[in-house]
Amino acid sequence: MTQAPATIFLVDDDESVLRGLGRLLRAAGHATRPFASPSEFLAQLSGDTPGCAVLDLRMPGLNGLELQQAMESKDCHLPVIFISGHGDVPASVRAMKAGAVDFLLKPFDEQQLLGAISQALLKDAAARAGRAETAALHARHAVLTPREREVCALVAQGLTNKEVAQRLGTTEKTIKVHRARLIQKLDVDSVAELVRFVDRLGQG
Amino acid sequence: MRFKVSTPSWRMVFVFCLLSLLPTQAVAQEASPAGKSVLLLIPEDTALPAMATLVASLRSSLWEAQDGPLSVDVESLDLGWARGPAYTHALHTWYLAKYRERRPDALIAFRSDAIQVALQLRRELWPDIPMIVLSEDERLWEQQPRPERVAGLWLHYDMRATAELALRLLPGTRRLALVNGSSPWERARQEQMVRELQPLLAQRGLEFIDLSNLPLAELLERARTLPDDTTVLTFTFMTDPSGRPFVGREIARMWLSSSNRPCFALHDTVLGLGFVGGALVSYEAVGQQLGMLTSRVLRGEQEEFLTPLKPAPVDTLTVDARALRRWGIPRERVPPGVRLAFDEPTLWERYRWWLLGALTLSGLQALVAGGLVVERRRRMRAQAELLERQRLEKLAEIEARRTLDQLAHVSRVAALGELAASLAHELNQPLAAILSNAQAARRLLNANPAELDEVREALGDIISDDKRAGEVIHRMRALLKRGEPLQELHSLNELVREVARLLANDMHLRGATLRLALAPSLPAVQGDGIQLQQVVLNLLINAMDAMADVPVGQRQLQVHTASPRPGQVELSVQDSGGGIEPSRLSLIFEPFYTTKKHGLGMGLSISRSIVEAHGGRLQAESPPGQGALLRCVLPAAHTESSP
User: Which range is the signal sequence, renumbered to this chain (chain B) (predicted)?
Assistant: First the structure.
């Protein structure tokens, strides 16, 4: 699967921190996009860029946790790493519960940051791959005619051609034709594979 | 004159919660089953000389006359200062509770007001026990029906006889003054005494000066300025018109030392203080007679109940021989039968001529030398006293200033404590930036080719971030510093800017905006820069706290500096909070006054002290609909203006 290069979104209201972090990440080979305020970041947000977000927890206006929620509500699923200038335990717990990858206390070492970032990027890639696969499944399924979808669902439940024909009030022969066509359209080799496909479709 | 010696008894206040702690003033705590007991109600504190003498004398008389043990419970009702019906009611309730299970064999009461309390108590608890009253009012039983089984004595405060004695001793008297207090009882006596004196005044054509019911200060002032032909009669002074009870013997002495005219009294307890004399009531004799009467009643002699009030033999006319000398009253004027107290010839009288001779000789010698010595010593003492006073004043000033410095330091530490989280954040930001830049630089140097331009920029950032961290620490340390306050010239604008920098991060995080309107050319102020900064810091922190309930976008803080009039520099801090209620405007400067959950409530109090120590003033205003405005005015230093 081809993919655009990952981008690290940096959001911190402290300009020099923003500059320092950007420099470090670029030196470590990452592409970065810095933002000095949550609102700027939200305005430029696009859901399809792979990468992760490094957010300062305490900022005027929206704080980091609120920003994380705003991202979710804008359907942006970038993994988040929080950084903070002071050890606010309740806030860090909430951040982790809300699905943050890590919570780093300033000043932090590059290994901590880079470790968290590679973890976040893996998570993003996995999530993206999952989302892409589901999307592909849906796309293939969308090609079936309504009748083929009915047959597909019943076959996946383990019914024989005869039983399917009885259910749908038609002949076994017609069902065989539908079945051959849908197996071809869905690009599966066996009934077992068909069952797995429907299964994943249900989850996606 | 008899003066109230008691301090107010708080007994009634604690009566119902502290029963067990009450001073019962009982002599014999428990009467043996066989022994008898009496309850004595007296109107005033037992510590009063008159009351103490009366009680002691009654007691010893009872013990002598009675075979076997006898217990005397004494209750002093503290009726001297008017406290209204609620007090007497509470008193009654208390005694009902206290004596319900403790029935005396007889009830004794002294003075008309205590007699009423006793009568009511007897009616409700033990209607059948005998009662003995000692009334100063001859007409006690004319005002109410006389109950059964009551024996009584009349204690006559004989003002008329006293006045007559005074006129015999001081025939030049044209005016009679009468000193008396303000309690209801004293006022009632006043009427009676004026009634008694009326015929005498008319007969001799005397002017009457009423010195009753006066505040103490006025009374003493009047004492100093009485006309020359005045003679003073005194009764009591237990309360002034405001109801304040007085501490007695001191006031008797105050009166006597203020009075420019001879004074007469009615109580033998004050004989010797300087009164000329009077028909003095002997409380010892009265107590003895009361004791004898009580004994007879306890023995069951019913005939004692027949007479309404028997006069007590107390009218002993007495004169203080020393006071006669003091006022130059010839002894021949003392009528026969009058007791002459303190009539002992002095050394001087005994050896007058010998002493005179010796004194004349040595006196002449000593006079010259002594005069010189005295004069010199007086001058030296005056000088020493002046120096000592100056030294003490200086010490007090230094001490006060030192206390303020210590308090100011504690308060600064507390204020910075409140800012600690914000300051930690403020330090961690540059530290984080420094670390990132340094590690980035290392990576950039290792790259091939090394990105030297980027490294140079990183190093530049590191330097400026390091400086920034250093400034935070420097500002913090300056405020935490504790040392002798300095007297230096400061620019108020610079102090404000410095504090604004310290608070910038906190304000940023609290979503408050600060608008500085600093007058471009402001005279310098003189004083301790740290303490002045502390004032600014407190004012700004307070203003931010005041806006905690205001929505984030509307938290505005305005700081102005100005020179409203020559020689003055003004700093005002206005917030956009809810303002201060007018009734609290002065309260907010009280120590430990706070509306916040955190903090000591010392900030504004200390700020005001600091400002005042710098010769300025700090005030709060709350213009309607505008939030609070704190205005600090400081004197300008005598120097050129500073930017």
Answer: 1-28
Q: Which residue has the tokens 């990468």?
A: A51
Contact A106 B457 (CB under 8 A): no
ipTM of the complex: 0.78
d(CA B568, CA A169): 103
Question: B6 with B49: CB under 8 angstroms?
Answer: no
Helix (H), strand (E), coil (C) string for B261-290: CCEECCEHHHCCCCCCEEEEECHHHHHHHH
Q: How far is CA A83 from CA A58, A72, A92, B135, in A?
A: 9, 19, 9, 91
CATH of domain A7-129: 3.40.50.2300
What is the torsional sign of CA B254, B257, B258, B260? Answer: positive
Interchain CB contact of B459 with A (< 8 Å) = no
What residue type is B515 in one-letter code? R
Question: How are beta strands B629-642 and B522-527 bridged, if at all?
Answer: antiparallel
**Of all helices (H) and strands (E), which one includes residue B641?**
strand B629-642
Phi, psi of B42, deg, nearest 5 = -120, 150
Please give the mean pLDDT across all residues of chain A: 86
Q: Flag whether pLDDT at A117 surpasses 90.
A: yes
Question: What are residue B557's phi and psi, to 5 degrees?
Answer: -125, 125
The answer to whether the CB of B283 falls within 8 A of the CB of B53 is yes
Give A44-70 pLDDT, tens digit per residue: 887 678 999 999 887 776 778 888 888
CA distances in angstroms from B474 to B331, B424, B427, B428, B543, listed in the order given: 89, 14, 11, 15, 24
* DSSP code of residue B189: H
pLDDT given at position B345: 64
Q: Domain B419-481 - what CATH class?
A: mainly alpha
Question: What was the pLDDT predicted at A156?
Answer: 84
Tell me: cis bond preceding B69? Omega within 30 of 0 counts: no
Q: What is residue B207's predicted lDDT score, i.e. its pLDDT?
A: 92
Cis peptide leading into residue A107 (ω within 30°):
yes
CA distance B547 to chain A (A): 16
Q: Does B408 touch chain A (CB under 8 A)?
A: no
Residue B262 and residue B231 in contact, taking contact as beta carbons nearer than 8 Å? yes
CA atoms within 13 A on the CB side of B635: 10
What order of strands is seen across the sheet that includes strand B230-234?
B207-212, B175-180, B230-234, B263-264, B277-280, B316-320, B339-341
B440 inside 8 A of chain A by CB: yes
Cα A20–Cα A25–Cα A30 angle in degrees, nearest 5: 150
Residue type, B4: K
Q: What is the mean pLDDT of residues A97-124?
A: 90
Residue B8 has what pLDDT? 44
The more confidently predicted of residues B80 and A104 is A104
Question: How many other CB atoms sit within 10 Å of the CB of residue B141?
Answer: 16
Candidates A201, A146, A156, A160; CA nearest to A183 is A156
Residue range B159-280+314-341, CATH number:
3.40.50.2300
Residues of chain B with pLDDT under 50: 1-33, 640-643
Judge whether A26 is closer than 8 Å to chain B, CB to CB: yes
What integer pLDDT is reported at residue B13 of this predicted model? 42
Pick from B425, B435, B447: CB nearest A58: B425
Residues 6+ positions from A160 with CB-CB distance below 8 Å: none
d(CA B622, CA B576) in angstroms, rounded, equals 11
Per CATH, the number for B2-154 is: 3.40.50.2300
Window A:77-106, CB contacts with B under 8 Å: 83, 85-86, 105-106
Pairing between β-strand B522-527 and β-strand B488-490 as defined by DSSP bridges:
antiparallel
Amino acid (one-letter) located at B346: T
- pTM value is 0.44
pLDDT for the residue numbered B12: 45
Chain B contacts of A19, Cβ < 8 Å? 433, 437, 461
CATH code 3.40.220.10 for A143-203: no
